[in-house]
UniProtKB/TrEMBL annotation:
Transmembrane regions: 12-35
Highest taxon, organism lineage: Eukaryota
Lineage, highest ranks first: Eukaryota, Fungi, Dikarya, Ascomycota, Pezizomycotina
Basic and acidic residues composition bias: residue spans: 239-259
Keywords carried by this UniProt record: Membrane, Transmembrane, Transmembrane helix
Organism: Talaromyces pinophilus
Span list, region Disordered: 239-270
Annotated protein name in UniProt: Uncharacterized protein
Bias type Polar residues, positions: 260-270
Length: 581
């Protein structure tokens, strides 16, 4: 070349630098892979995963491959392992490692390869766990289901938005315990993320296990004004067949036939009513027949959708005595668990694994008790309900009829005075016989009017407008308070809890209450109440009041629309296993 440069010089001064520049990315990837691998190994060591993982780097590509164990986890033994109630002291704070916040039984089922270019991409494999076991464990720790989250998960399944909360911390605390997470693969399993803080721990080994319920014996602190703890028992009333048996046919009198003195009202008052026995005493008497050891509470657990046995406790410790519930009947058992489920927020543990049957939920929402029946039972007054009955017939003679009868009697007496003695005596005898016959006919007519009015009043009561079940429960509670069957500070919820305890210790009462509820549901569904059903309520008015309390608590629970049990159970059936990461 003219300037004295040769091809060798060009290669030396231009080609070699260009070649070096071409190798620099490879060198950069090489160095970065080494640094990332060292950083990942330090991270794995810090989280206690180094010994169980395998790391290798593709230095030319700048990628670090990490093989991490994939685990299947199950909760520890609740009663035997104290670590069940503790948080993991070696929690993994990497992505996918939220499950390590708790201590688990861990079984390695395989390995998962994670490819990382940066240490921030390192992700711990999600753990497989039985969905029901996970929910039961978190509920046992004190978590509370979020109705909106379960409803959303039931509706759209795997498309549920990431971050949707399924379980919340114990009541009154903000945060999220269990939420939907982004899956790390597309294998069709639901991915979840869990979180827990030590300040959320409100339960321990002393608490009831999940899906168990404790009922404490009613009575403590519930006193009447006279210092006696009282509740009532179902009462038996005999219906009179005819009010005319007690009347004198020879001296008929006009009978008061006002709305408050009809046949049915009379049978529910005065001497026909048995004395109400305090429920606390009734429960104690029932306990004497079914237990022999001191006890102050019971606990039970669902077996399917029924309660088969109840365990007695003394100071929250089992006494070893068991009460079988099957003999009370299917209806009583179903209503027992339905009411307990509705009241479970007031109890120590909630029955998240039970859904109230549709036939009961639809029944409690229907207006079914006629207002006239409540009046006939003596639970409400006519002033408390809309007009429902026709006015009673008048049994008094009119002024004109009385005056005409007196004038006729005076005229006949004057004629008798003008007659010879023998003829006057005969005329007087005829007049008195005619008068007695007229009085007898009037008496028969009055009794017929009474019976017709009573029959018509029964029909009108059955056909009268129906009341909400909540209104019926409030009225029956007020009646029990007025009769000193329950303390004045009792609420419908208190009464329902007491009734549940009564059903445990007295199968006869439980069967009676279940029979009333069954008949109640039947007339609610099929055309209204019949006379025979009204007679049943008249004979067992207090038992009807008890049944109304159970209906009311289910009614209020369903009206709140906040029970996630139905949606949660559907989701547990849809996903047997989930990924927790």
């Amino acid at each position: 070349m003219d300037n004295g440069t040769s091809a060798t010089d060009i290669i030396t001064y231009i080609g070699i630098p260009l070649a070096v520049l071409g190798v620099l990315p490879i060198l950069y990837s090489f160095v970065r892979a080494i640094l990332v691998q060292r950083s990942i190994r330090r991270t794995l060591h810090r989280h206690g995963l180094l010994d169980s993982s395998i790391t290798r780097g593709s230095l030319m590509e700048g990628i670090v491959e990490v093989e991490l164990p994939r685990c299947t986890i199950t909760p520890l033994d609740r009663d035997e392992d104290p670590e069940y109630w503790k948080l993991n002291s070696h929690q993994v704070f990497l992505k996918g490692g939220s499950w390590s916040v708790f201590n688990w039984n861990t079984l390695v089922t395989g390995r998962q390869l994670v490819r990382c270019q940066y240490k921030d991409e390192l992700r711990v494999p999600e753990a497989d766990i039985d969905f029901e076991d996970l929910i039961a464990f978190l509920l046992d720790r004190g978590a509370v289901p979020d109705p909106k989250g379960w409803r959303l998960l039931k509706s759209i399944g795997l498309w549920t938005p990431t971050g949707t909360a399924l379980l919340l911390p114990p009541r009154g605390i903000s945060g999220t315990v269990l939420k939907v997470a982004t899956p790390d693969n597309a294998d069709g399993l639901l991915s979840l993320q869990v979180d827990w803080k030590s300040e959320w721990d409100t339960r321990g080994s002393f608490s009831l296990p999940p899906f168990w319920v404790r009922l404490k014996q009613p009575g403590s602190g519930k006193l009447l004004a006279d210092g006696k703890e009282t509740m009532g028992e179902p009462e038996t009333i005999d219906i009179k067949d005819d009010v005319s048996d007690s009347q004198d046919d020879h001296e008929p009198q006009a009978q008061d036939i006002s709305r408050d003195s009809t046949l049915v009202t009379e049978t529910t008052s005065d001497t026909e009513i048995s004395a109400s026995q305090p429920l606390v005493k009734l429960i104690e008497e029932g306990k004497l027949h079914v237990t022999s050891r001191p006890n102050d509470s019971v606990r039970f657990k669902l077996d399917g959708d029924r309660v088969h046995k109840v365990l007695f406790e003394d100071e929250e410790l089992p006494t070893g005595e068991i009460r079988e519930m099957a003999s009370a009947g299917e209806t009583a058992n179903l209503w027992f668990i339905s009411a307990a489920s509705s009241l479970s927020q007031s109890l120590e543990s909630e029955l998240w694994n039970f859904t109230i049957p549709n036939q009961i939920t639809s029944f409690v929402k229907r207006k079914s008790v006629p207002c006239g029946v409540m009046v006939l039972l003596g639970i409400l007054n006519d002033d408390d309900v809309p007009p429902w009955s026709s006015p009673p017939p008048s049994l008094q003679d009119s002024v004109h009829e009385v005056g005409e009868r007196m004038r006729q009697d005076m005229y006949e007496r004057q004629l008798e005075n003008a007659m010879p003695p023998a003829q006057a005596a005969e005329a007087r005898r005829v007049r008195m016989m005619r008068s007695a016959h007229e009085f007898h006919n009037q008496h028969i007519a009055r009794q017929k009017a009474v019976r017709e009015y009573e029959d018509r009043r029964l029909v009108e009561a059955i056909q009268s407008s129906r009341l909400e079940n909540g209104t019926v429960a409030q009225a029956t509670l007020a009646y029990l308070i007025a009769e000193k069957v329950v303390p004045e500070d009792y609420t419908t919820k208190d009464l329902a809890l007491a009734v549940l305890y009564l059903m445990v210790v007295d199968n006869a009462k439980a069967t009676l209450i279940g029979d009333i509820l069954e008949r109640w549901a039947l007339w609610s569904q099929f055309g209204g109440m019949q006379k025979v059903q009204l007679e049943l309520l008249i004979k067992n008015k207090v038992a009807f009041c008890y049944a109304a309390a159970l209906v009311a608590v289910v009614y209020h629970a369903e009206a709140g629309d906040s029970n996630p049990s139905t949606d949660m159970l559907e989701c547990l059936k849809s996903w047997k296993r989930v990924r927790l990461g």
